[in-house]
Amino acid sequence: MALFSRGWRKNAAAGHDDETTTDAVAADSEKSVEDDSADSAGSAGNASAKRPSHLEPGPYDQADAPDEDRIDLGGLQVPTIDGMELRMEVDQRTGTVTGANLVIAGSSLQVQAFAAPKSRGLWEEVRTSLRDSVVEQGGTAETRSGAFGPELITRLPVKRADGRTGYRPARFIGVDGPRWFLRAILTGPALSDKEKARRFETLLSRLVVVRGSEAMAPQELIPLVLPGKRPGLIPQKATLIDPLERGPEITEIG
To answer: Quick check: 143 and 150 in contact, CB under 8 A?
Structure first.
């Protein structure tokens, strides 16, 4: 199975000048996650660990979210912060909105919310599938303890403009909520800069997931819309563990 959306892959191919740089970013990102875990989660999956002070209690379910000005994207509500650019992933053939990218100073956090069973979360299962798929494609993947619990640090091989193979690092974050699962993928300079990473972590902790009461199959994408629109709540076609395929274009907002 493939793992990353077309937009992620396109950014990956042009993201760094040489393999040494990507290796350094990957190493720094692992150190950054380890540093955060010392402040928070001690060991992966330790639900009783102290939450880092820069995080809010979220990501929130709509029923528990505090009042705040947010951008309404249907299945997600995103806080407005200075310097953030919102880029929506839209399938040009169907018009379906499949994801949101929150961009700050050259780094990007892709966020998507999916339906989940009432009885269990999805992140452990998804994390295992992601790790196996990255390794099968010649990359590396390692589970680390981060600000939101177990996270996945990956290095995926990409073809550079000069024909050589480079490696694109990414940090996968998963949050299990009531009947929903939120997946976030962090890329860019924030992987190796702890303060920049914390800004994205704070942003993620302020997101709101709007699951709705409609019946949805597990791992079905919770419908998203462009800002200013209202969702029709028609189940969208996207999967948790199948993003190397040719996918949606990115539409910049604002």
So the answer is: yes
Distance separating alpha carbons of residues 38 and 21, to the nearest angstrom? 26
Residue type for position 220: E
SS3 content of the chain, % helix, strand, coil (to 5): 25, 30, 45
Q: What is the dihedral of CA 156, 89, 149, 58, to 10 degrees?
A: 170
DSSP string, 152-216: EEEEEEEE-TTS-EEEEEEEEEEEEETTEEEEEEEESGGGT-HHHHHHHHHHHHT-EE---SS--
**Residue 158 tokens, joined:** 């990409």
How many Å apart are CA 166 and CA 177, to the nearest integer?
Answer: 35
Q: What CA–CA distance (Å, rounded) separates 188 from 5?
A: 16
Ramachandran region of residue 63, left (φ > 0), alpha (ψ -120 to 50) or beta? alpha
- Alpha-carbon distance of 112 to 1, in angstroms, equals 18
Distance set, CA 89 to CA 46, 84, 100 (Å): 34, 16, 6
Model's pTM, two decimal places?
Answer: 0.77
Q: Would you call 239 exposed, middle or buried from its count of C-beta atoms within 10 A (0-12, 13-18, 19+)? A: middle
Q: Position of tokens 């990501």?
A: 59
Using one digit for the tens of pLDDT, what is the confidence trace for 36-68? 433 333 333 334 467 899 999 999 999 999 999
What is the model's pLDDT at position 94? Answer: 87
